[in-house]
Hints:
This protein has helices at 11-23, 37-47, 58-62, 79-88, 103-116, 130-140, 169-172, 176-192, 309-322, 331-350, and strands at 2-7, 27-33, 53-55, 69-72, 92-95, 120-122, 147-155, 197-205, 231-238, 243-249, 258-266, 269-272, 278-283, 286-291, 354-355. By secondary structure, the protein is an alpha/beta fold. It folds into two domains: 2-122, NAD(P)-binding Rossmann-like Domain (Rossmann fold, 3-Layer(aba) Sandwich), CATH 3.40.50; 129-306 and 334-355, 2-Layer Sandwich (Dihydrodipicolinate Reductase, domain 2). It is globular. The two termini are 32 Å apart. The model has no long low-confidence stretch (mean pLDDT 94). Bound molecules: nicotinamide-adenine-dinucleotide. Nicotinamide-adenine-dinucleotide (NAD) binds at residues 7-13, 33-36, 39, 58, 73-76, 78, 96-97, 123, 125, 164, 179.
Amino acid sequence: MLKIGIIGCGGIANGKHMPSLKKVKEAKMVAFCDVIEERAIKAKEEFGDEDSKVYTDYRELLKDSDIDVVHICTPNSSHAEISIDAMEADKHVMCEKPMAKNSKEGRAMLEASKKTGKKLTIGYQNRFRKDSKFLYEACKDDELGEIYLGKAKAIRRRAVPTWGVFLDEEAQGGGPLIDIGTHALDLTLWMMDNYDLKYVVGNTYHKLSQTKNAANAWGPWDPKKFTVEDSAFGFITMENGATIILESSWALNSLNTGEAKTSLCGTKGGADMEDGLRINGEERGSLYDKKIQLDADGVDFYDGKGDDPAYEEAKSWIECILEDKEPVVKPEQALVVTEILEAIYESAKNGEPVMIKKQCECCK
Ligand SMILES: NC(=O)c1ccc[n+]([C@@H]2O[C@H](COP(=O)([O-])OP(=O)(O)OC[C@H]3O[C@@H](n4cnc5c(N)ncnc54)[C@H](O)[C@@H]3O)[C@@H](O)[C@H]2O)c1
C-alpha cells in the first residue's frame, strides 16, 4: 500500500486526483496540505480518515517519512520548487501539468529525479483517454507511416478560467498556451513519438481579454487582471522536417472549437479526433475513412463501457511505482513540451523564430 500526500487541495485535486486515488486500492491518501487550511481539512474529511494529517506548509508534510508519494496540485509557479523538495525528501512525484513555468525549472526537476532516483510524472491525463490510447497504438503499429504533420488543438470559444490565479502571468507563466495548449501538444508529440526539436515560431494575442463584461462559461473577467495571453499559435519544425501546428485559445471567435485534440497526417494514413476518432487512408486504389467504435457494446457494470482517464492515470502511476516501471508520461517528454511552449512565448515576444539548442546528454 502506497501512502500519498496531496499538496494543493483546490480544483484539480478535488476534480481529478483525490476521487481517482480513492478508487485505487493500492493507494491511501494520508496527508492533505493547502495554504488555505479549510481546503485541506475538507479534503481530509472527504478523502481521508481520522488518522490523516492536515498541513498548511508542504515542507512539514514532506518531513513525514511514512509518505511515499506526493501529488502536487498547486499553481504552476510552485511546481518546480515543491517537486524538487519532495524528491529530495524521498517521495515519488506526480506533478500537475504543465511541468513548470519554464524549461530551466523543468530541467531542474528532471535532474532532481535522476539524482534522487525518485519517479516523476506530469498530469497529462488525456493520454489515458480511450481514443488517445487507440491512436497511440495505431501510430506505434505504423498504421499512419511516417507522420510529417501534426495539428495540436485546444480552442475554446469563451471559457476563460476566472477562478484561482489562471489570469496571473506571474503565478502561471502564461495563459491558454501553457494551460490547455500543453495537453494538445503533449498528445501530438506522444503520437508522433518525435521529441527532436529544430525551431519554433509563435504569436500570442491579448485581444478578447480586453473585452468588458464578456460572455464566458465561468463569468466575465476583469480585463485589467487578465495579464496572460487569450490566444497563442505556434509553428514547430522538428529535426526530421516534420511540422506541428499548435492552436490554443480560451476565447476566440471561432465555431471550430475542441480541446486536447490532435490530427495527424502520415505517409500511409491520417487520423483526427474532430468527430470521434477517425483514421483515414488508401486501400486497393480507394480512399477509406474509418470511425473507431471505442466502447465495446457491453454493460457498464462489467467495465464494457466507460472512459475514466483520471482513474486510468492514477492506477497506471501507482502501478509504475509498485512495479518499478517507467511512468507513461516521462519527465523528459514533458520537458520538451515545456521547451516548445517557452519558445512560442519567446518568439511572440521577439518577433523571431527560436532555434532550439540541442539537449545535453543528461536530459535526453
Ligand atoms: N490536468 C488538467 O487537466 C488540469 C486541469 C486544471 C488545472 N490543472 C493544473 O493544476 C494546478 C492547480 O490548478 P487548480 O485549478 O486546481 O487551481 P486552484 O486554484 O483551484 O487550486 C490550487 C490550490 O493550491 C493551493 N496552494 C497554492 N500554493 C500552495 C502551496 N505552496 N502549498 C500548498 N497549497 C498551495 C491553493 O490555495 C489552492 O487551493 C495548475 O498547475 C493547473 O495547471 C490541471
